[in-house]
Amino acid sequence: MKIYAEYYFLQNLLLDYLIIQTTAKILNCYLSRYKALFGALLGAIYSMFYFIPKLIFLYSIIFKIIFIFIIIGISFNYTNLKQYFKILITFYLVNIFLAGSGFFIVYCTGIDYTIVSLVIIGGLFIIFNSKFLSVFYKYLRSLNIFKEMQKDVLVKIEENILNFRALMDTGNLLKDPITKDPVMIVDVKKLEKILPKELVYIDYSIMDFKKIDYLLSKLSIEISNRFRVIPYKVVGNEKGLILGIKADYIEVEGNKKNNIILGLSNFSQKDEYNAIINPSVL
């Protein structure tokens, strides 16, 4: 029984650690390995309460929820309750998926659950320590799945007509804080016919008011009146600024939309799109 308990502890330690890693991977957020390991260790210790009759009450639903809250608090960095509950829900769904998958395999094959757990742990380990994700992503791209999430967008600014290939992304919730106009993130190189070189060939990943003042000083009065400064937040409580230019309108599949701001950004040449917009705007 001692050997089994030790194995059970190690199994839960590895599985909890990989569940935490999977959650971080899905949310694309920073994760300290030491904090993740400490959170997994707490989860593994909690699993051992099952072997102590006097502590079996800790396996009630209420205490399970409490321990999940604690594990999330220990393992992840978060800045507000909204971010915390986003991590919590994702962590919970990953748990349900892996547990459900394990029991489904056991039910259909009759294989011992401990063996199934090893397979799941091994599978997750391979995913995080190989090029599997990269290969899988390339496979999805070869099926043209992502092309269905893209639209051709025509943009008019003064007398200029620009064409963009936009990715539909529900995660883009940027709006002008004053007018509430939605923001479409665009590759600044597509605006080189409109903007001076000082604004086209510059790194937009790090912007501050001093840099923005300098850039705006390079513009004519007419075009500068179109510019907006959009504040935003990213995971880790980092605050940033996006410099935007207001378009006369955008057009998608014959439908015109006014009051759209183009947020200037730098896109990679490898990207199959040069703009990002929330589909609800369309």
TrEMBL record:
Coiled coil: none annotated. It comes from Tepidibacter formicigenes DSM 15518. It holds the Pfam family Peptidase_U4. The keyword Zinc does not apply. Belongs to the peptidase U4 family. GO terms for molecular function: aspartic-type endopeptidase activity. Its EC number is 3.4.23.-. InterPro entries: SpoIIGA. This is Sporulation sigma-E factor-processing peptidase. The active site is at D169. The chain crosses the membrane at residues 34-52, 58-78, 85-107, 113-137.
